[in-house]
Amino acid sequence: MQPANFDKKSAAETWRLSEDSMEAWRYFEAGRQLKYAPGDALYRQGEISTSFYLIISGKVEISMVREDGSYFMVEIMGPGALCGEGPAFDGLPRFSSAIAAQDTLVRRFDSKHLDEAFQETPKLALSLIRVLAAKQRIMSRRAQHLSAPAPEVRIGDLLLRLAETYGRRDQPRTPIPITLTHEQIATMTGTSRVTVTRWMTKMRKLGALEISGGTAYIKNAELIPR
Prior knowledge:
Elements: H1 19-26, E1 32-36, E2 41-43, E3 51-57, E4 60-65, E5 71-77, E6 82-83, H2 85-90, E7 97-100, E8 104-110, H3 115-120, H4 122-146, H5 151-166, E9 174-176, H6 182-189, H7 193-206, E10 209-212, E11 215-218
Antiparallel strand pairs: 1-8, 2-7, 3-6, 3-8, 4-5, 4-7, 9-11, 10-11
Helix pairs in contact: 1-4, 5-6, 6-7
């Protein structure tokens, strides 16, 4: 039996977990199903709430505003992703905002009502631990490279991470089957759009990167700064 209304189409997300890791949440029938139009906020930075969300269809941009007022896009999440779960359990203000980038369907859960569910379905708790562990690992990696003074390293690490997430080991080229604008890459790496464009052009000339039919291919990862 397939989860109701669950969209398995490829989305332009930058973060996802394996099917096995998210299976328990997809079949968990508790929670309230909600629809969001583009620009609607699932939650905002600074709020305190016990709610978190499973994205069923659509796309959600996770972003934050730094102390200097600058905008930083953290991730783009699509079907099958959980978002907002950390602050939902620790009771502290949210450190990011989640904004629907297109028509989006989610299931909203309340952390206050999950004790019994975790006891009855231990896989839910295990899945949540895996989600938190995966996000911690990715954020640690990004923190390491965002501190790098060279913008080429930050941009290269983002594309290599996407290639690792979506690429197929049995192919000589590593496809990144998502669409990110140069502006989005810039906001995710703390660089400028001009810098991203120059970097992409340079990588294509070096033979490290290929753009074909709207899809990016890493032809030679060894040529990408890291």
